[in-house]
Amino acid sequence: MKYIPPFIISPTVLNLLARISEAVGRLSVEMDQAQSLRLRRINRIRTIHGSLAIEGNTLSEEQITAILDGKRVLAPPRDITEAHNALAVYDELAQFVPHRETDLLEAHRRLMIGLLPDAGRYRLGGVGVMQGEQVVHMAPPANRVSILMRNLLGWLADTDIHPLISSSVFHYEFEFIHPFSDGNGRMGRLWQTLILSRWQPLFAYIPVESLVHQHQNEYYQALNQSTARSDSEPFIIFMLSMILDAVENSAPPHVTPHATPHVRALLKTIKGEQGRDAIMAALGLSDRKSFSDRYLRPALAEGLIEMTIPDKPRSPMQRYRLTAAGMKLRDEM
Asked: What is the largest CA-CA distance in the chain?
């Protein structure tokens, strides 16, 4: 008999499914009407930052942006390698087929090259999932990994369950099997993105991983609840909730081809080279997080401003200045 993962499609799941489908429809129209290349770039950076941060990577979104732009970044070498690998794999996402085992192994190899001696190969030893010093999940024995993964990939190839649900089921089952010696979390999130993007290409650029990072404890709790119940419904509900939030927060009005009102205000404010505190004071702002999220990061990601010390984003001597593109846009206002 063919393997069928245990899960329940509850009314909560169906309600989330309907809401996501409606939100995706609206976003598709908005994205078609907008020149969304910059939005896609920003969301791709947020996706990679979120997925890597869950695994302990210390790079900021600004540093990942700098790496994408080919700039030098001062950070732990492993963190930089992880970012380089993730940027390359996400850029090549469309070439992978979700149910093809060779593609799964190749994606893991590219994601973990230079980080893991057995990159692209299933683990040969036992592995447990740790939460602090406590083992919260002992994965199946290594000699079962190959058959379990083939069963799971076979189910994925044959299932007619909606991709929003099947991708979440696959993600949970993948984490339960934990087929690799390392990189399982980022691979599970990558593969769910791949499955979703095959259904709706927009998902290649919707930063679900960024929201998962913000709700990291709930992510692990949902995994543990699903394991305890031998039913992935808790994890399905968690992931669908994250997907819904990500879709609803990905609308182009946050970043338009002519820049948001917040970014426009920032461009008008910066005089020469200025530090964060001076710019915030000039704008009459006191909330550093709001300033970073609404003003600084979008302007940096769009290439309208730049750091004077790009390889040390957190330097107390850091200053910001307009780029040529920023000056041009400011002069057109």
From this structure: 70
CATH code matching the domain that covers 11-253, chosen among 3.40.50.150, 1.10.3290.10, 3.30.70.330, 1.20.1290.10:
1.10.3290.10
* 3-class secondary structure, 307: strand
Q: What is the pTM of this model?
A: 0.74
Q: Which residues contact 192 (CB under 8 A, 6 or more apart)?
A: 167, 168, 170, 171, 208, 239
Q: Kindly report, residue by residue over 193-223, the tens digit of the pLDDT.
A: 999 999 998 898 888 988 898 898 899 899 9
Round to whole Å and give the CA distance between 310 and 78: 19
Structure tokens at 137: 């999940």
User: What is the CATH code of the structural domain delimited by 258-332?
Assistant: 1.10.10.10
User: Which of 61, 70, 66 is CA-nearest to residue 42?
Assistant: 61
Rounded alpha-carbon distances, angstroms, from residue 101 to 6, 117, 121: 21, 19, 11
Backbone angles phi, psi at 147, to 5 degrees: -70, -40
